[in-house]
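Quick one:
INPUT:
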């Protein structure tokens, strides 16, 4: 049974088009230049896992025809990755199940703070997501896939990427700590965030992506969290010869070794 990776969103924190912007990418007729906030869906058989639940989570699920969610992984607590979490209740309520939400302990603390109402006894019923917070403190298994947390730097923040089989999903990465290198051998696909060409305080630049790709040698690298400076078509033409590709919303990839 092969796992499938689907990009629910590939955009930076503002999404693309950026509201109010009239630049050529924001006005581009190419649907691949329309990017919702970064998130991916992993399917294995009937089971579904999502990494991050940004503000457009509900729209993304409708667009991708997601009929169930069996697990959620959270990379960190920023709004563009988390604030759609409440919409998971459609899956917990109608399917009558508790959905595990995995994240680093520090991120779980933020989830408890941002979504404090979920655990208030005064508010009950179908209006609440039925989730179970699970601290990531080492490798674990979800929807039948072995998952390894990858500590990464997001500016000053310590956050998590995840290795699922031979896929590494590392959004909002500005630096890979040397201790994480051995966790990333023999990758079929590596997904990293890249907001723009030149250096950025909290994400990899395009030059840094190329360097990381040469260092880790995954079969292919996919870029997500893309901003409106990047035209999909131009980026594709520029990078394909390096086995680096821009992701786009709706892109599906068969994964080897998951
Ligand atoms: Zn982000
Ligand atoms: Zn723009
Ligand atoms: Zn972030």
């Amino acid at each position: 049974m092969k796992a499938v990776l689907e990009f629910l969103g590939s955009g930076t924190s503002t999404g693309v088009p950026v509201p109010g912007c009239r630049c050529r990418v924001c006005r581009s007729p190419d649907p691949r230049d329309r990017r919702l906030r970064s998130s991916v869906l992993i399917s294995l058989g009937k089971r579904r896992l999502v990494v991050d639940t940004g503000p457009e989570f509900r729209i993304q699920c409708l667009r991708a025809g997601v009929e169930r969610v069996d697990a959620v992984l959270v990379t960190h607590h920023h709004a563009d990755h988390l604030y759609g979490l409440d919409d998971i209740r459609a899956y917990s309520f109608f399917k009558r199940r508790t959905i595990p939400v995995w994240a680093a302990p520090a991120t779980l603390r933020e989830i408890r703070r941002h979504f404090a109402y979920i655990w208030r006894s005064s508010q009950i019923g179908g209006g609440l997501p039925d989730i179970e917070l699970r601290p990531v403190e080492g490798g674990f298994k979800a929807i039948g896939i072995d998952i390894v947390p990858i500590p990464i730097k997001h500016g000053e923040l310590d956050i998590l990427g995840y290795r699922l089989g031979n896929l590494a999903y590392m959004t909002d990465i500005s630096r890979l700590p040397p201790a994480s290198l051995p966790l990333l051998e023999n990758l079929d696909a590596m997904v990293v965030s890249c907001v723009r060409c030149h250096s950025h305080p909290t994400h990899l630049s395009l030059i840094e992506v190329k360097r990381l790709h040469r260092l880790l040698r995954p079969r292919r690298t996919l870029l997500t969290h893309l901003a409106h400076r990047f035209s999909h078509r131009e980026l594709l033409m520029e990078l394909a010869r390096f086995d680096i590709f821009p992701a786009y919303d709706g892109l599906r990839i068969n994964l080897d070794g998951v």
